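SUBJECT: A protein chain and its fold
Encoding: whole-number codes for local backbone shapes
RECORD BEGINS BELOW THIS LINE
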Amino acid sequence: MKNATGPEESGYPVFVESFDADSRYRRVRLRGLGCEPLEREEFEPRLRQVFPDIDLDDPAQVHWEDRPGQWPPWHPGEA
């Protein structure tokens, strides 16, 4: 269930949207910048670029809509 105010107005610096098994990306909303599809390998570097002092383990800073820390399965060679 989505936040009643929507991810952009959630108040979290980072809002990770629902897990989508059909994609290797998760849509990540970055406060002030909008939404970006990010792979597991891109997630931490991008967050640190935008929010250098962010605590990735603090649920008040990084909110996962579902399956915290999980990413869809993907294997090299898949689109």
Summary: Residues 40-50 form the longest helix (11 residues). DSSP finds one helix and four strands in the chain. The longest strand covers residues 26-30.
